[in-house]
Amino acid sequence: MELMLERVEKQVGPQTHLYPLDLTLVPRAVTVLLGATQAGKTSLMRVMAGLDAPTKGRVVADGTDVTGRPVRERNVSMVYQQFINYPSMTVADNIASPLKLRGEKAIRERVAELAARLHIEPFLKRLPAELSGGQQQRVALARALAKRAPLMLLDEPLVNLDYKLREELREELSHLFATGDSTVVYATTEPTEALLLGGYTAVLEAGELLQSGPTAEVFHKPKSIRVARAFSDPPMNLMAGTAASLGVTLKAGVNLSVPLPPASTSALMIGVRASALRVRPRDGDVALPGHVELAEISGSDTFVHVDTAVGELVAQLTGVHQFTLGESITLYLNPSQVHVFDAAGNLLVAPSQEVR
Fold it and tell me: Residue range 69-90: average pLDDT?
């Protein structure tokens, strides 16, 4: 399905849930709606599904205006973060229900295939109430995938699952989406999830669509500080700077050799992702000495907060590292890995070199 939203907005009483936006979904591809809680992701998905009608604007599906057409008249499947299953049916019957409605053949084989991919084969004869929350969510996912609807909407479907299962299912869902015929919309608060799923990303904040496009492009070239913040975990490090003859000068006289556009404003903001900061120097790096304020280990990475002359910075280091609070440390940054924003927060320069 090709779904187009044209100047869609949504108001509920005096509150604006969605400001006017235009968005076209690429058929048979995954579009991630990325944003914090209350960014407008669920409101947008409800309009796409036909659960809510937009206050203004049009929803066009495969060239047909379906604005206001209820969800029962659309071929859409949707999975919420709060799973919904038929309590009186077994797991197998839950998954098979959309297949039976369509009168498909080889239902048992399709159910077994989806159950295997979502790791719920041992539970096919059980009722949903006999399963854990994570297992019930996988049943809801399997039923949605079984429907093979031309438009599949998933509203933070993995948020209630444990870390290990989320990681496994992200990879599996990415494969399932790539081999299916559905146009998929996937809402998440996690930038990492958007990067893993690939495809396209639309960044939302407080009901505004800030930027949309291929995921890698939006990540590497965020059009504003607002987009960069939303698409960074941990949040992007920001440092005030001024334009200089050879690039940008930060506090304490730290100079970054970054080619600026001719019409750049004198006041600038430099953005640096945590993964671009290192504790071992490389050719061309700039040294940023400071003191450790906090060190956190998360999974296989260590996040170290450092108080430097240019401000407090967070570095994401691969592996488990031990630091003592208050100890001296020097972070290193290559100027080719910084974002430069103007005084209004708009992107002027994107990194010329990817973080490695």
Answer: 85
| Alpha helix ranges (H) inside the chain | 41-49, 91-101, 107-117, 133-147, 163-179, 191-197, 215-220, 225-230
* 3-class DSSP state of 264: coil
3-class DSSP state of 166: helix
DSSP-derived secondary structure letter, 261: P
Alpha carbons within 13 A on the beta-carbon side of 183: 17
The C-alpha atoms of residue 68 and residue 229 are separated, in whole angstroms, by 34
Between 57-61, 195-199, 324-328, the lowest mean confidence (pLDDT) is in 195-199
Q: How far apart are CA 179 and CA 239, in angstroms?
A: 43
Which residues touch 44 (CB under 8 Å, ≥6 apart)? Answer: 5, 8, 10, 18, 21, 23, 33, 204
Q: For residue 180, give the amino acid letter.
A: G
Q: Which residue has the higher pLDDT, 150 or 160?
A: 150
Phi first, then psi, for residue 80 (nearest 5°) are: -100, 165
DSSP one-letter string for 81-148: SS----TTS-HHHHHHHHHHHTT-S-HHHHHHHHHHHTT-GGGTTS-GGGS-HHHHHHHHHHHHHHHT
pLDDT in tens, 266-309: 999 999 999 999 999 999 999 999 999 999 998 889 999 999 99
Place of tokens 């003191």: 291
Lowest mean pLDDT among 123-137, 157-171, 228-242: 157-171
